[in-house]
Amino acid sequence: MRAQDIYDFVGGDAPFRRLVDHFYALVEADPLLRPMFPPDLEDGKQWQFLFLTQFFGGPARYIQQRGHPRLRMRHNPFVIDQMARDHWLSHMLAAIDVAEIQEPARSLMRDYFERASTFMINAEPSAPNVMQWPQPKADS
Ligand code: HEM
């Protein structure tokens, strides 16, 4: 099976609606991710739904209504480091199971989300500043 076969395999819009609903419920409850998203989540939810149904072989509604996805560019305004990506991915993987998406679609989708979410990382983790001289010892 290829990624483009998933929409028909799972039975069209309904499972994707469940996927996006569960995913957004988890985002909404996540204190790390919630502030990154706008106060009203409905538009983003709809774009996510249209994107995913199209990507996995459904009707080309996203590109018709929104234009070329250019996802990395669309994510530029948000600071996405490894930790934010890990939260995002864990919610999406959980949502795949809650939406009861069956194998082999489940594994294909997990694989896509793992790779694509890594590709969306655009920031270093906030690390302590290691580029500084060591402090002299008190007795030296
Ligand atoms: C597999 C990786 C990802 C995919 C396929 C994806 C897909 C999308 C799509 C289709 C949209 C809507 C774009 C539009 O406005 O037309 C979107 C918006 C957004 N994404 Fe992602 N995304 C991914 C990863 C991430 C990650 C890792 C984060 C942050 C941790 C993130 C945060 C956001 C935010 C904050 C928005 C804006 C939501 C809004 O305006 O309501 N995304 N994403």
Task: Give a quick rundown of the structure.
It is built from seven helices and no strands. It has helices at residues 6-10, 13-28, 42-55, 61-66, 71-75, 82-98, 105-119. Helix 2 (13-28) crosses helix 6 (82-98).
What CATH calls the topology is Globin-like
**Name of the CATH homologous superfamily:** Globins
Poorly predicted runs: none
Shape: elongated
Radius of gyration: 19 Å
Order of H and E elements: HHHHHHH
**Structural class by sheet pairing and helices:** mainly alpha
Strand content: under 5%
Labels describing this entry:
single chain; 140 residues; mainly alpha; Globin-like; 56% helix; 0% strand; binds protoporphyrin IX containing FE
Write the layout of secondary structure elements.
Blueprint: H1 6-10, H2 13-28, H3 42-55, H4 61-66, H5 71-75, H6 82-98, H7 105-119
Helix pairs in contact: 2-3, 2-6, 6-7
Residues 33, 36-38, 41, 43-44, 47-48, 51, 66, 71, 74-75, 78, 80, 84-85, 88, 113, 116-117, 120 line the site of protoporphyrin IX containing FE.
Overview of the structural elements:
The chain has 140 residues and is mainly α. The protein has a single domain (3-119), classed as Globin-like (Orthogonal Bundle), CATH 1.10.490. Helix content is 56%, strand content 0%. The longest helix is centred in the middle third of the chain and has 17 residues, at 82-98. The mean pLDDT is 94. Bound molecules: protoporphyrin IX containing FE. Residues 33, 36-38, 41, 43-44, 47-48, 51, 66, 71, 74-75, 78, 80, 84-85, 88, 113, 116-117, 120 line the site of protoporphyrin IX containing FE.
